[in-house]
Amino acid sequence: MSLDPATMRPAPTGARFDAVYGPAAGGRQVRARLQHPDPPPGAAASEWTLRAGDFDVLGHVNNAVTWGLLDEEVERRLPGHRVASAEVEYREPIPGGRAVTVLVTGGEGMLRLWALTDGGTLACTALARVEPGAPPHRR
Questions:
Q1: Residue 39 lies in a domain
Q2: The pLDDT value given to residue 135
Q3: What average pLDDT values come out for the chain (139 residues) when binned by 10 residues?
Q4: Which stretches are transmembrane (predicted)?
Q5: How far is the C-alpha of 54 from the C-alpha of 69, rounded, in Å?
Q6: Which helix (H) or strand (E) holds 24?
Q7: In CATH, what number is assigned to the domain containing residue 92?
Q8: With CB atoms 3.0 to 4.6 Å apart as the test, which of 52, 109, 124, 135 could cross-link to 82 if both were Cys?
């Protein structure tokens, strides 16, 4: 990933990157389109408490922490299930000092999650296929 040095936001990788790694892509192109829907009305809401160690060097929530939130929500809402596969879309960074509300829907076989900052900004979404069984760390 490339970062714009002025904004510290993701940026195009550029010609040098394409010259080195382009042949390995075999003509395939990555498209960064958001596919997850916005949260529906009536989704169950809870607060997400962040810790100092949840932040990267830029002061944003580390992506691995978001995946941990997904595991916790599956364990809390669907006891005896684990994440079988999942995808997370990151829309906006979650900066420190902000309250985060988590909205969740789902049931048998599927769980959808939305994380919103205190201003109502949708920061990330997750879609998980779940299956019966203990998470790997609990076996």
A1: yes
A2: 66
A3: 76 85 84 87 90 86 89 89 93 82 89 91 94 71
A4: none
A5: 11
A6: helix 15-25
A7: 3.10.129.10
A8: 135
